Q: What sequence folds into this?
């Protein structure tokens, strides 16, 4: 029995770790540790992803086609083990977008109740 | 820090499935280390530490999640031992719950068997291990040998003092037991107290620390006005209400006021199994020492036991040599009392070295019993596991054929064993906890918690060991079944009948249970004989009161007048028909065995020696056969006389007239005297129902003693208070006398036998239960594997009854060899027991009724165990049975 290709809706809501990784990647090619750093920098350290969760999520995201794995660049000078780089796929981007929309709808309700600082409904 | 943290992270990565780990492991570790380093740099160590800890938890958590995902996707993956283990566990639980008969039988066997075992081990420890407060290492006992044999543990005071004074590499302490009456005016609960009179260094020698308070000081070994007393923790708790200010208070023990100087540690009630103490007093307060008797200077009077401690760097061999040379010196200086007397130093045991042989015997018996029970459990399990594995041969072959590895099969089989072991261990612990509670309630004291924990550990450990070892052999054997042969065979054809091993196992179990059952029956029958037995005196309406004149503090010159007055006063009580005084009565359970020989001869026999006064035989109701009884005229200045029982007369002078013959005997070594036999009485019981009727009676006036027994024949027991009042009127300071009936003494002994019977009985019932479980298991499986054969038989016309008979007959065939062997073993054991005990009353005889009864009970139990599978076999529907497979 052939398995049905999962649609964007099948993945929603996204798990926070996956959403975070998709956002942290942006349009860059990053390795695992780069993703950790990027997420931290962009949220001023408020969001953090731990190595176990990171790589378990990445493995699943590769399998589900949210990110694609790149060969390591020839000029990787960061030292340490050879790292794989990851790039967000179109499907990944669509997912991040759908999740953001979902969250925005929720945020709107919260804002109407004066729960979000600086934003009113 | 970061490299160590990284290493640990690397190790924790193992929680990930191998494939994932291989792919991402290095990167994960790298990211972890970089992030840690960055955090240390930018935010400080604390922040880094938080990250490290969270990462550890995270990596293990996600790792196992990944594994679980993997398993769901590839359930037969051979990757990783952990995955396999989880799978095996699920498999094992499933297959065990599918064959619940097997599981239930195994678990029941384990639970019952191991609980019995743990309790046996526990009791052995409680009985044979020295109290925890005692430093047993280096502690010794000093025993006496006479003429190179006859091990004894009693010393005379001068001998002890001489050895103690000499440098032998030992520090020595003497002790002797006694009882005192605790007067109610000093505490709320008066009454008798067990006393251990000891040398001042007793606690020091045993290494027992006293707290609160202190031990005895060396000065307290000397006679003083107010003796110090050390009390046991239990006594403090139970009788003195745990009084926190107890040290320094006084207790009134009979007429003596003693000051409490210390409390012994909890759980220490004396160092020796036979001498439990509630209070310890210095040796000089012993009543016999206080009296004018020369017990402190008499080398012939043996009354002390001696313990010691080896000094540093002294071996027991060296100590032995030193002690022996001292004793040899004493023997030379005092040949009259010490000729042939030698001493030996032996390691300290709770039983006391003098009883080392009996202690060893009891310990061996305990171990034997426990081993036997364990053996039965093993047999049950072996039988069950073998049958089951054989029955599953086809399934196993199929799995092999489908590509399962041998290792995998073995692991699966072993996992089943492990599950059973664990459950069995837990169940038995539970059962044991219940049993221990019950027993604790019986003893009146809860079993200590750490002891229970030990027992639980023993249960679970033994369970694991037996089960896994037993699981291993079939696992090895059957994990390589002849593939084709097994696949060709079909289930239920009856080709794989129960194997030889479990047939033998069932027989052996019956053979073990049966002797226990029969001996139990023997004991029970024995107690019946005890009530109805003829003891050679009139048991009913005989009253016995024990009075210790030493404890009462009577000076020597006042003893005779006290005795005469007591007799007169009691005689005057209405309802009293006869009164006499002796130092014992038959069946009072006080040892009085003495060596005696025909005058001028060396050869000796043992006989019970009792000091009596006039009117003794008339009062207890034993007829005089020849000559006369002891008379008031048999006083110290007259010729020493004795009366013997018919048995003793025949033993010493077979077929001859005993009257006028002379006998040599002594109550202690130095007072060997010759007496002339003036009378022969009918056989009468000795100190217990077990002792032989060879008794000698001498005149109390000629052989004085201060521990006397007042014997009264009454018309009705209602006069007991009157008699007590008469005695207290005579001496208001006297300890309230305990007056018992002879019947009560016998009943007391019977209760002890019942306790023993309950133990053997409980054990035999449980063993039989185990055997029944084993039989049930074997037969049930035999039926299951023969379903098809049975169906075939029924299809060709066999009736339900004939099938029923066939299965039951199979069960009987299993049991009969066991019953035959068991009966033989029982007969042998019974013979040995009868030989050893019960000399007087042939109370426990192996009568054929008991034997047949025991065998029938065993057979019925086996039949009952077979009846369930037999009924199942008889209800087999031929068509369905043939359709199997």
A:
């Amino acid at each position: 029995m052939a398995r049905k290709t999962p649609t964007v809706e099948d993945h929603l809501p996204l798990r926070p770790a996956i959403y975070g990784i998709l956002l942290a990647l942006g349009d860059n090619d990053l390795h695992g540790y780069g993703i950790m750093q990027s997420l931290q920098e962009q949220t001023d350290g408020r969001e953090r992803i731990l190595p176990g969760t990171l790589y378990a999520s990445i493995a699943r995201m590769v399998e589900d086609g949210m990110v694609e794995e790149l060969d390591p660049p020839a000029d990787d000078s960061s030292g340490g083990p050879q790292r794989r780089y990851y790039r967000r796929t179109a499907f990944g981007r669509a997912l991040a977008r759908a999740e953001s929309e979902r969250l925005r709808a929720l945020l709107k309700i919260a804002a109407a109740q004066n729960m979000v600082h600086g934003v009113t409904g | 820090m970061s490299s160590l943290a990284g290493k640990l992270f690397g190790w924790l990565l193992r929680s990930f499935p191998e494939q994932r780990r291989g792919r991402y492991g290095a990167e994960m570790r790298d990211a972890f280390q970089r992030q840690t380093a960055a955090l240390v740099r930018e935010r400080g160590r604390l922040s880094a530490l938080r990250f490290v800890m969270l990462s550890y938890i995270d990596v293990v958590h996600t790792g196992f999640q990944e594994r679980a995902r993997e398993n769901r996707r590839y359930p037969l993956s051979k990757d990783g031992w952990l995955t396999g283990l989880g799978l095996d566990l699920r498999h094992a639980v499933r297959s065990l719950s599918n064959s619940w008969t097997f599981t239930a039988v195994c678990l029941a066997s384990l639970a019952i068997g191991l609980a019995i075992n743990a309790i046996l081990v526990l009791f052995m420890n409680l009985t044979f291990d020295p109290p925890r407060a005692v430093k047993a290492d280096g502690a010794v006992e000093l025993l006496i040998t006479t003429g190179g044999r006859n091990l004894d543990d009693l010393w005379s005071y001068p001998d002890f003092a001489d050895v103690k004074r000499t440098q032998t590499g030992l520090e020595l302490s003497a002790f002797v037991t006694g009882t005192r009456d605790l007067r109610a005016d000093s505490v709320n609960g008066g009454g008798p107290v067990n006393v251990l009179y000891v040398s001042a260094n007793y606690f020091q020698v045993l290494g027992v620390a006293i707290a609160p308070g202190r031990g005895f000081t060396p000065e307290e070994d000397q006679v003083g006005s107010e003796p110090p007393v050390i009390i046991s923790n239990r006594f403090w708790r139970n009788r003195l209400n745990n009084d926190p200010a107890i040290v320094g208070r006084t207790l009134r023990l009979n007429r003596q006021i003693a000051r409490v100087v210390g409390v012994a540690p909890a759980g220490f009630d004396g160092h020796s199994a036979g001498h439990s103490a509630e209070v310890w007093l210095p040796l000089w307060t012993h009543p016999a020492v206080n009296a004018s008797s020369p017990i402190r200077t008499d080398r012939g009077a043996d009354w002390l036991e001696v313990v010691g401690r080896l000094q540093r760097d002294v071996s027991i061999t060296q100590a032995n040599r030193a002690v022996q040379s001292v004793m040899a010196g004493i023997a030379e200086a005092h040949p009259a009392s010490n000729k042939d007397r030698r001493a030996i130093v032996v390691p300290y045991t709770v039983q006391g070295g003098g009883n080392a042989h009996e202690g060893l015997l009891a310990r061996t018996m305990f171990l034997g019993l426990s081993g036997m029970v364990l053996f039965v459990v093993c047999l049950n399990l072996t039988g069950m596991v073998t049958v089951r594995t054989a029955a599953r041969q086809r399934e196993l072959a199929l799995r092999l054929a489908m590509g399962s590895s041998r290792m995998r099969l073995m692991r699966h089989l072993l996992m089943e064993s492990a599950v059973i072991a664990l459950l069995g261990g837990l169940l038995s612990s539970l059962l044991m906890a219940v049993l221990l509670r019950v027993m604790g309630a019986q003893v009146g004291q809860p079993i200590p918690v750490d002891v229970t924990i030990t027992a639980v550990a023993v249960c679970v450990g033994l369970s694991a060991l037996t089960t896994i070892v037993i699981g291993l052999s079939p696992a090895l054997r059957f994990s390589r079944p002849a593939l084709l042969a097994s696949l060709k065979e079909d289930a239920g054809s009856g080709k794989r009948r129960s194997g030889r091993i479990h047939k033998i196992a069932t027989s052996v179990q019956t053979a073990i249970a049966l002797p226990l059952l029969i001996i139990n029956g023997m004991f029970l029958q024995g107690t019946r004989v005890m009530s109805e037995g003829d003891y050679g005196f009139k048991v009913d309406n005989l009253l016995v009161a024990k009075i210790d004149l030493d404890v009462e503090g009577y000076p020597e010159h006042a003893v005779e007048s006290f005795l005469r007055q007591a007799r007169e006063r009691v005689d005057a009580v209405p309802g009293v028909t006869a009164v006499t005084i002796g130092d014992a009565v038959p069946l009072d359970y006080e040892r009085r065995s003495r060596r005696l020989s025909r005058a001028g001869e060396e050869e000796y026999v043992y006989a019970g020696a009792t000091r009596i006064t006039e009117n003794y035989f008339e009062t207890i109701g034993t007829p005089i056969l020849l000559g006369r009884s002891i008379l008031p005229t048999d006083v110290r200045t007259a010729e020493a006389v004795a009366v013997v029982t018919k048995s003793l007369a025949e033993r010493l002078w077979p077929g001859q007239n005993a009257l006028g013959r002379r006998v040599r005997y002594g109550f202690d070594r130095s007072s060997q005297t010759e007496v002339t036999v003036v009378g022969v009485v009918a056989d009468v019981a000795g100190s217990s129902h077990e002792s032989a009727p060879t008794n000698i009676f001498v005149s109390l006036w000629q052989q004085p003693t201060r521990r006397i027994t007042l014997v009264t024949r009454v018309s009705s027991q209602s006069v007991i208070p009157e008699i007590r009042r008469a005695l207290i009127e005579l001496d208001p300071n006297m300890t309230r006398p305990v007056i018992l009936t002879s019947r009560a003494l016998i009943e007391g002994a019977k209760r002890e036998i019942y306790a023993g019977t309950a133990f053997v009985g409980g054990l035999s019932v449980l063993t039989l239960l185990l055997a029944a479980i084993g039989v049930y298991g074997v037969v049930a499986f035999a039926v299951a594997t023969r379903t098809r054969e049975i169906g075939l038989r029924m299809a060709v016309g066999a009736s339900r009854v004939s099938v029923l008979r066939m299965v039951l007959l199979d069960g009987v065939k299993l049991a009969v060899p066991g019953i035959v062997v068991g009966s033989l073993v029982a007969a042998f054991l019974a013979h040995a027991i009868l030989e050893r005990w019960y000399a007087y009353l042939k109370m426990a005889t192996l009568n054929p009724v008991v034997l047949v009864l025991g065998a029938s009970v065993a057979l019925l139990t086996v039949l009952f165990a077979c009846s369930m599978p037999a009924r199942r076999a008889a209800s087999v529907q031929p068509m369905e049975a043939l359709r199997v497979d």
